[in-house]
Structure formats: C-alpha cells, structure tokens
C-alpha cells in the first residue's frame, strides 16, 4: 500500500502513523476514567495535548457523547456559555479555554466544582489551554484545585521525539540522515519535529514509501532555510506588529521587542514578566509602562493578526506563544538585524534611565508633564513621584545619588528661581555637577528667572520654558527636542558598534 509523506509527518490534525504517547498519557487515561471529575490539560502549543486527549478518549472507549468546542470560534463560545445549564452533556472538550473572557472562566470554574461534588456520571468537562492557564481558573475558586485534575504537558524528552521520527522512517521506508539534528532543533515539540521531518523528505524528493531511496540526503541548514523562508511570509508581519507596539518609537527602549526576544529565548515558551524584569532592570520602567497601563493587553485585544500567536494573561502577568511555528520562527531571528530592519536604533541598554529630572517642588507641573510624555515614547525617565514605592524605607540620599551621578544618560534640570532654594535640588546638583563637561546635562531655563542666576549653565546648550505659554505645548516642544538628542546618541552608538 502506498503511504504518502503528508499522511506520515502531519503538520495538522491527529497523526496516523507517528502518534507517540507523551509522558503524561497514563495520568490522562486515569483522569479520563474518573467520573465527574473535571480535567485541565495545560502546556505549550504543539506539544501534543489535543492529540493525546483524542487518542485517550478513543482508547478508553467511553460509551458517551464527545463534543469538541473551541474558545476561538464565536458559535462555540455561545455554546460554552450554556454548558452550566446542562445536566447530561457527556464529555465536552473545550480547546484554548485561556482566551475566554474572565466571566465565562468563572462560570466554568463553578460548574466543574458542582460536577465534582455531585460525582456526575453523565457529564465531564475537559479544558485545554497553554502554560499555567489553569492558574487563572483556580484563582476564581481556590477550592477547585482539589476537585479537578491538572495535567501539565512539558516539552517532550528527546527519546519521545526520536520515537516519533522512527515511526515516520518505518512508514516511509527511509532513514533520516539528520535525525539527531531534527531532534535537537524541535526543542521538545512534536509539531516542530513533524514540520522539519516533512521538509527534510521534500528536499530529498521522498514523497511516499515507494521513493526508492534508503535515506534522505540533505542538511539541517538547507531544511531550516526552506522552513524559515516559508514561515517568514506569514510570521514576519506578526513579529513586526508586536515588536513595534502601537507605534514605532525609534528613540524608545523597544519594550515590545524585548518581550518578544525574551519569549524566543524562553525554554518554557512563556514568560512571567515580573520575574524577567528582575533580571533586566534597565527595561523595568519602559515595560512596566506598557504592562501596568494596559497597553500590552490593548495591543493584543485590538490586533486580530496577533491573537493566534501570542496570549497575555493579565491575572498572572504571563505572556505565552500560542503557535509553535511562530515560536520556531522567532527563535531563528537575527535579532540585531530584525531590530534595525523594523526601524529601531540599538537595542542594548546599560543604564537604568535615559533621563533623570531634577527640579524644585514648585515646578512639579512641568516635570510631570515632561516625564509622562517621555514614558509615552517608551523612554526611561527617573521622576521621583513614579518611584515613591521604591524609595520608601530606604536611605533617600543613597537611592538618589547614583541616579544623578551615573545611572541616567542625561539629567534634565528645571532651572527656576526656586531651584537654588531647595535642600534636595542642592543635593542632586552636587551629584551631577561634575557631568557638565561630559555634555550630559540639559538645562531648562524658566523665562521669569534672572538670567544671571545660572550663569555657569549658559555655557552649555539648553532650552527655554516660557511660563506665559501653555504648559502642555511647551513641554511637548521640550520632549520633541530631547528625544531627537537621544535618537542621535543611539545612532552614534550603533554606528560605533558596527565599526568595531
């Protein structure tokens, strides 16, 4: 019987010739046979969750109706909302339940608790989601954790990937000449292994079990190049759209680009943003800006092209890749080239802040306006009011001194008649005064202040703030100019790095 390549190494649907029981399969079988008890199956995309459930249901041979629903289909979501009203629904499998609205998740949580307490023999609910998807479900009903089985699918061990590829070799009567490389490159994903093995056979003109070849004869580099070229047409626009965010800000710290890069390097295919910020303090301000103000959630909510590749759970602050092919693509991006291609100027940041503001309390209105406008441009700025929670219970001088001394690329000084009268501005200026010769101090002179008051600062380029004009328009002009200054510095730094 002729066996076709596309039926052996399948890139969609349930494998016919190459199904391998994952490590979690036995627990899945036992849970499936347990009456009434709900089940949450979570783990990375492409790891074999849905396939394993379908195979397990077939193997157990339960004499009941099985209904499969997807949280990504509008008509199915309407059905999912009605599930708690059913008393005899058989087995219902809800795929991608993590994308459901929180109110529906809460209803499902209550429903699963009811089914478990009643030991229902006619109804069973199985929810399939990405990494840690069950956490948000349990957060609505903490005591649900003892009433459901949570089965976590991890990246498959290499021996499981090898077993799958061997089944494919046997079906096609060939040997994969780069089998060990394919195992390593798949990073535990059955889906990626299937995709790479299929392309390996295509490159070697093996399209069925009657090819007449004993082994494939291509290289991993050739296979990857073909796959990535094919994936780029679909996934480059998505990667670019996420990396830019709502708008390309060349002078900014590229928070979305960094999130995408961290996702690409994550062994678990998802990232807990809070944990990573502790490892990358220079990105904390700009990323907190897009996370805490809801910009990240809004980007994904308003952009349909991103919703099938990246998911953000604002309850757990976890960002996850949904599509294994997208993950494979971003893992193979040349990041410096990618950043430059979409318009960013340098993506390596050493200092915590691009700017630090020094001002008297009477001038907080201008300081806050400048700070907010800089943050909107994804520029990192030290503004004391935004860091009050970090300053609490610390020695204030020890906290502030390094910021003005060295941790900010530039210090913006609001020079009004009140500036020389304050204790803290005196302290701050003592920290940064030696930096005047480094061209890193930007004076802002108030128009109603005696010009002789800050004679020394007039030796350096600064900006004027006209107190009689509209504050918002004046601060906008200031931010526009200092942002260009930062952009020029990044260009110089990037050019120097290329020439070294």
TrEMBL record:
<dbReference type="Pfam" id="PF13676">
    <property type="entry name" value="TIR_2"/>
</dbReference>
<dbReference type="InterPro" id="IPR027417">
    <property type="entry name" value="P-loop_NTPase"/>
</dbReference>
<dbReference type="InterPro" id="IPR003593">
    <property type="entry name" value="AAA+_ATPase"/>
</dbReference>
<dbReference type="InterPro" id="IPR035897">
    <property type="entry name" value="Toll_tir_struct_dom_sf"/>
</dbReference>
<protein>
    <recommendedName>
        <fullName>AAA+ ATPase domain-containing protein</fullName>
    </recommendedName>
</protein>
<feature type="domain" description="AAA+ ATPase">
    <location>
        <begin position="35"/>
        <end position="158"/>
    </location>
</feature>
<dbReference type="InterPro" id="IPR000157">
    <property type="entry name" value="TIR_dom"/>
</dbReference>
């Amino acid at each position: 019987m002729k066996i076709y390549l596309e039926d052996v190494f399948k890139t969609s649907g349930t494998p016919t010739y190459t199904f391998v029981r994952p490590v979690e399969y036995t627990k899945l079988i036992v849970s499936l046979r347990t009456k009434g008890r709900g089940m949450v199956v979570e783990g990375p995309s492409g790891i074999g969750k849905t396939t394993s459930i379908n195979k397990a249901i077939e193997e157990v041979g339960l004499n009941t109706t099985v209904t499969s629903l997807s949280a990504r289909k509008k008509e199915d979501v309407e059905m999912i909302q009605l599930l708690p009203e059913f008393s005899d629904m058989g087995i219902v499998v809800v795929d991608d339940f993590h994308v459901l609205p929180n109110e529906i998740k809460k209803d499902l949580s209550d429903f699963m608790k009811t089914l478990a307490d009643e030991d229902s023999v006619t109804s069973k609910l199985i929810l399939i989601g990405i990494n840690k998807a069950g956490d948000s479900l349990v957060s609505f009903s903490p005591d649900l954790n003892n009433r459901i089985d949570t089965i976590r699918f991890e990246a498959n061990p290499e021996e499981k990937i090898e077993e799958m590829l061997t089944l494919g070799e046997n079906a096609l009567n060939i040997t994969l000449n780069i089998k060990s490389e394919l195992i390593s490159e798949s990073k535990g994903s059955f889906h990626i292994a299937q995709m790479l093995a299929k392309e390996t056979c295509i490159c070697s003109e093996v399209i069925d079990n009657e090819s007449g070849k004993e082994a494939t004869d291509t290289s991993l580099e050739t296979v990857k190049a073909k796959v990535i070229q094919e994936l780029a047409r679909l996934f480059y626009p998505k990667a670019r759209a996420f990396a830019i965010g709502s708008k390309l800000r060349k002078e900014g710290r590229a928070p979305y680009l960094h999130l995408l890069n961290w996702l690409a390097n994550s062994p678990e295919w998802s990232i807990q943003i809070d944990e990573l910020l502790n490892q990358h303090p220079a990105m904390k301000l700009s990323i907190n800006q897009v996370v805490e103000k809801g910009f990240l959630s809004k980007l994904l909510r308003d952009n349909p092209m991103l919703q099938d590749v990246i998911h953000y759970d604002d309850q757990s602050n976890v960002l996850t890749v949904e599509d294994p092919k997208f993950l494979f693509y971003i893992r193979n991006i040349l990041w410096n080239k990618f950043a430059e291609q979409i318009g960013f100027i340098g993506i390596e940041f050493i200092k915590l802040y691009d700017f630090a503001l020094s001002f008297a309390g009477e001038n907080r209105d201008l300081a806050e306006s400048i700070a907010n406008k800089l943050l909107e441009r994804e520029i990192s700025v030290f503004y004391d009011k935004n860091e009050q929670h970090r300053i609490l219970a610390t020695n204030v001088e020890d906290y502030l001194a390094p910021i003005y001394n060295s941790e900010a690329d530039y210090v913006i000084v609001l020079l009004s008649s009140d500036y020389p009268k304050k204790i803290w501005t005196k302290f701050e200026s003592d920290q940064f005064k030696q930096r005047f010769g480094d061209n890193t101090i930007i004076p802002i002179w108030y128009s109603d202040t005696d010009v002789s008051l800050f004679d020394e600062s007039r030796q350096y380029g600064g900006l004027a703030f006209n107190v009689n004009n509209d504050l918002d328009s004046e601060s906008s002009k200031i931010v526009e100019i200092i942002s260009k200054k930062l952009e020029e510095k990044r260009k110089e730094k990037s050019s120097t790095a290329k020439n070294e």
